Structures are given as structure tokens and as C-alpha cells.
Amino acid sequence: MSYNLLKGKRGIIFGALDERSIAWRTALRCHAEGAELILTNAPVAMRMGEINKLAEILNAPVIPCDVSSNEDVTNLITKSMEHFGGGVDFILHSIGMSINVRKGKHYTEIDYGFNAKSLDISAISLHRVLATAMKMDAINDWGSVVALSYIAAQRVFPDYNEMADAKALLESVGRSFGYHYGVKKHVRVNTISQSPVLTTAGSGVKGFDGFVEYAEKMSPLGNASADDCANYIVMMFSDMTRMVTMQNLFHDGGFSFTGVTEAVINKM
Ligand SMILES: NC(=O)c1ccc[n+]([C@@H]2O[C@H](COP(=O)([O-])OP(=O)(O)OC[C@H]3O[C@@H](n4cnc5c(N)ncnc54)[C@H](O)[C@@H]3O)[C@@H](O)[C@H]2O)c1
Fold first, then answer.
1. How many angstroms separate the alpha carbon of residue 140 from the centre of ligand 1?
2. pLDDT (tens digit, 9 = 90+) per residue, 141-183?
3. Which domains are delineated in the chain?
4. Pure H helices in the chain
5. Is 26 helix (H, G, I), strand (E, B) or coil?
6. Is residue 136 within 8 Å of residue 82, measured between CB atoms?
7. What is the DSSP letter of 223?
8. Would the pLDDT of 79 be above 80?
């Protein structure tokens, strides 16, 4: 069902790797709600070729961008403005990468070079995108930027490793930049803290299946799916949420405020 919530709006979607990606599901929903899109991902992700399938469905250009490169981000913003003939109304940051997790390093023994790269790609990149957009005046008045986070930013999930620190930093950047962009152009910036979902990034976490099952049993509504998340993001991009900014919004079926559930006790 479509409500034309994004009719006339234009946006950039980072992070659609394959059809399980939260960004992929979101791009489909934004398109169905009337938005015009540009898709982007790291050049290495492009080689897998999946994103072109999505681009065809949405009739959207694909512009490669390694979000840890100033040059790539500037090029993306420049080309997006050329394509649309002006600024964008929304941006989705749906990017996560932990080099230490990839290399099998325990949290207590991380490599700091890898760690700097992980924080740069997963968190500081939000600052880079916002700073570049601000400098180039690329986001229209009352625009909306959303980045995806996880509750490991507030509570300990041991196997989430350095990504917990990355998400805490990401949420902080959202808040801090949200202040400056709000004052300057009424642009709002929020993070959405999403339930676990089986995606490429998600399944990189050790014991992820157990994680998903536990969260399902600990959430009064059950886990929020990628499609549920896409719907929430559409709302955040729409004019229905104009006064919401600098927030970390839990989208997790109630997990974040639940102490225990009968379903978990019954398992004990
Ligand atoms: N899956 C979950 O359980 C879950 C839960 C909460 C939050 N999130 C967050 O949602 C976001 C999207 O993840 P997903 O679960 O859809 O997985 P995904 O693997 O489909 O998406 C992650 C994306 O990050 C991109 N990326 C990695 N390095 C990049 C770089 N240098 N430049 C540009 N892009 C780069 C990847 O190519 C990929 O498209 C991430 O921030 C993730 O941490 C996921």
C-alpha cells in the first residue's frame, strides 16, 4: 500500500548490498511512496552486481562511493546534485563494517589500525557525509537524515565487539551534527536502533542466530523486520516527523525497555 508520503522528494540511499539489506528494503518503500532515488555503495560491493538489479527496478542511477574517502563523498554529492538539478530531501546511512570482527579479533585484543578504519567507515562517515553536504548546500530545508544503529551502543552484547563503540559514536555524531544542521537549515538527523535482522552485516556477528532468537523472545512485539524498519524510515523522511531531530529512536518491538519476558523465563 502506498500513501504518497514521499511524493516529490529526492534522496540518496547508502548500503543496499543485496535484497536482504535494510537499505534495499528501504529503497523499495521510498520508491513506492513516490520518491526519486540515487543508490550508492562501496566500489567493492558494486562488483557483486546485485545493486544494478535494484537500480533497474527503481530506475535510479548508481554512484559508487567508499564512504571513508572524502573525494568519493564529494563526487557522490556533486553527481547527485547534477542529476536532480538541486539538493536532496533525505539521506539514509545504512553502513557498517568491523575489520576486527572480520579478522576474528576478540574485543580485548583488537588491532587499533583496524579499529580506526572500522570507526571511520561505520561512524565518522556520517559526519563526513553531513559535513560535505553542508559545505555544498546539498540538503534542502527541512530535509531528513537517518543512520542505522544497534542497542549495543547502550548495553553490553559481548560478541558485538568494536561495533558497540562504533554505534555509540555514530549516535553521538547524529546528535551533535543534528544540532548544527538544525540551526543552519532545519535539517533533522536521527539514528534508528533496529532489532537484529539476518543480513550480510548482521550475520558477521558471532552466534547471530541465537542473538535473533533471544531478541525475539525478549520483545513484546517480537523482532522488527527489515520491511518494518523501511516503513519507519519512510515516516522519518516524510513531513509527518518534521520536528523530530537529534534522537536515537528504538525500533525493536519493545526490546530496549523490557527487563524479562515469560517466553525467556520459560526457556530457563
Ligand atoms: N542486521 C542487523 O541485525 C542490524 C541491526 C541493527 C542495525 N543494523 C545496521 O544497519 C545497517 C545496514 O546493515 P544491514 O544489516 O542491512 O547489512 P548489509 O551488509 O546489507 O549492509 C551494510 C552495508 O555497508 C556497506 N559498506 C561497508 N563498507 C562500506 C564503505 N567503506 N563505503 C560504503 N559502504 C560500505 C556494505 O557494502 C553494505 O551494503 C548497518 O549500519 C548495520 O550496523 C543492522
1. 25
2. 999 999 999 999 999 999 999 999 999 999 999 999 999 999 9
3. 10-267 (3.40.50.720)
4. 22-32, 43-46, 50-58, 70-84, 99-102, 112-119, 125-135, 163-185, 208-218, 226-237, 262-267
5. helix
6. no
7. P
8. yes
Distance CA 173, CA 199 (A): 24
Q: Judge whether 217 and 187 are in contact, CB under 8 Å.
A: no
Contact criterion met (CB below 8 Å) for 51 and 14:
no
| 150 in contact with ligand 1, CB cutoff 6 A | yes
Question: What's the CA dihedral at 180, 69, 121, 82 to 10 degrees?
Answer: 60
CA distance 257 to 214: 15
Amino acid at 249: L
Q: Ligand 1, from 13, 14, 21: best to mutate by most atoms within 8 Å of Cβ?
A: 21
Mutation test residue for ligand 1: of 12, 53, 71, 94, the one with most atoms within 8 Å of CB? 94
- H helical segments located in 191-245: 208-218, 226-237
233 Cβ below 6 A of ligand 1: no
| pLDDT score recorded for residue 48 | 77
